[in-house]
Amino acid sequence: MRLARTLRAVAIYEAFKGVLVLLIGIGLVLGLHRYIEYVGGQIIAVLHINPASRFARMLLSVTSHVTYGQLWAFAGFAAVYGGLRFLMAYGLWFERRWGEWLVACSAAIYLPLEIFELFNEANWVIVVVIVVNVLIIALMAAALHYTRPAVPADVP
Question: Is residue 77 classed as helix, strand or coil in its secondary structure?
C-alpha cells in the first residue's frame, strides 16, 4: 500500500513536469517569444545561477539568437516530451510495470549528464536534481523488485 502511494506521488511529479513543459511550449508559440531573452535572464536570476557560468552564457546566447522555426521546433519537442511524461504518469498511477521501467530509465539517462555538470559547475540546483533522480531510480528499482512476476518452480 505504501509503495502504491509513493508511485502515485512520483506520477504526480511526472505529470507536473509534463504540464510545465507543455505550458512553456505553448507560451513560446503564443507570444512569449517576444520576451525570450528577458525570460532567460529571469530564469538565471530566480535559480540564483552565476550569470558568468557556462550554462547562463549558453542560455542567454540561445535566447538572443532564436528564430521562429526554432521556437516551433521547441514547441513540437515540448509536446512530445510532455506526452511522454504523461505516459509515465499514467503508467505509475495505474501501477503498470512498463511505467516503472520507463521512469527508471528516464531518470537514469539524465544522471551521467547531471553528474558531469556537477563536476563542471556545482550549484544547489544540480545537487537537488541529482538527489531527486537518484531517489526516483531507487524507488523504481524497489517497485520493480517487489512487483516482479513469480518464477514457476520447475524453471531453473
Answer: helix
Q: Side chain identity at 58, as an amino acid letter? A: M
Please state, in angstroms and rounded to a whole number, the distance separating the CA atoms of residues 40 and 32: 11
Residue ranges covered by each domain of the chain: 2-146
With vertex at residue 75, the alpha carbon angle to CA 74 and CA 76, rounded to the nearest 5 degrees, is 90
Question: How does residue 57 score in pLDDT terms, banded at 50, 70 and 90?
Answer: confident
- The 3 state secondary structure assigned to 84-117 is HHHHHHHHHHCCCHHHHHHHHHHHHHHHHHHHHH
> Residue 97 in contact with residue 88, Cβ under 8 Å?
no
Of 37, 91, 89, nearest to 61 (Cα)?
Answer: 37
pLDDT score recorded for residue 1: 64
pLDDT tens by residue, 33-48 = 677 777 778 878 877 7
Nearest Cα neighbor of 11 from 132, 136, 148, 144 is: 136
Is 6 in contact with 139 (CB distance < 8 Å)? Answer: yes
Burial class of 87 by CB neighbour count within 10 A (0 to 12, 13 to 18, 19+): middle
Query: How many CB atoms are closer than 10 A to CB 126?
Result: 19
